[in-house]
Amino acid sequence: MPVPLLIIALIGLVVVHGYLWLRLVRDTTRPGRLRRYGTWLLGFLALLAPLTMVITRTTGPSISRPFAWLGYPWIGLLFYLVIFFLLLEVPRALIEWRLRRTTAPTTARTTTQASSNPSGQTAPDDPVDAAPNGQPDTAATPPVPTPDSEPEQQTSTPQTLTPQTPATPTPDNSDLLLSRRLVLARSVALLAAAATVGTVGYGVRTALGEPTIKQVTVPLRRLNRRMSGFRIAVVSDIHLGPFIGRGFAERVVTLVNRQQPDLVAIVGDLVDGPVAELGQAATPLRDLTARHGAYFVTGNHEYYSGADEWLDQIRELGVRPLVNQRVEINQGAVTLDVAGVNDAEAERFGGEEPDYDAALGDRDPTRPVVLLAHQPVQVHRAAEYGVDLQLSGHTHGGQLFPFHLMVRLQQPTLSGLTKFDDTWLYVTNGAGFFGPPIRVGAPPDITIVRLVS
Length: 453
Hints:
alpha/beta; Purple Acid Phosphatase, chain A, domain 2; six-stranded mixed sheet; 11 helices
């Protein structure tokens, strides 16, 4: 990953973990031990995410597997937690606004009453105490001495003090509001967590399940009628590595062989690790059966994993790599050209760049040609060379909905059959997955492409 993208990714991880801390820890707990534990846990997970991506990219499965099983599921959970919390922000804000409106007036009334009578005593309605008969109570009024009168000798008598009834305490509405906001925050957190767990659970089951078999028919204007019905099994993005091993490769081979294709096209990202650790996991490819053989082109992950060694290993398994090359597929007197070019990012990782002229430049223009190229974006160059059909993978169909929106910023199409000028492009979702073992909205597939004239 380029340094600018790496920096952006790290900043993004910090931001989303900080946001989750606000919603999952600060808003749902009071200051104390529970909040400290939640902060420590999120801090650990924030470090685990980038560490996992670095280790799985730079080491083999034997070292990276524990980190992958911890870090990548958390990245998937993180992705959907943020999405569901963001979706709940508006209703949460509306409910909180309503709570403030229903709580604030009570506080205002209490403040008004307290300011008008701070002692809490009830003032009489009339300053003159009325006697029982309705006349003024003169006994209760002390005589007013005159200058001519002698002061009377008053007998000092003890006065009985009547205890005053204390003012009835009113509830502290600021505490009430805080309590209601805490209940709201916890309810939102539980709802987001439940939606996340359900979505991720479904996604894990889909990703680790068996790929579906898709059937697609593509008309090629230059295809001879005698070759109409030619069937190509398109397999991509198996990603043998920390999560996917030999057992999954065996299942893929079994599914392909059941379809009895005329040709097998493996369009990149077969592995995530070196031959020394994953060579045995790839051996089931030796059992692929197709009348015209199996062919392979590199994806970007082959260059992370030692592309030259893997090309040699794949040859030993009976699969033919097409390294900027073309082969003729003869069926009787009819010929179909099948070409392959290296991944679009090969040169950046020390490999040979895709050479369209070497693969397509000197072919017979009267014959149809099918191009194997890992990334859909390569279709623009393919169209310049008059390619009839390009078969690609790489996108995983987006893998994690709505992550597909970001994939569309880089690739011209996400999945399925589309057309650019006179060139058809078919993109498979791929059989495996990369990163989080989760697929939402993009189930794994193996596609049988049927060519018709």
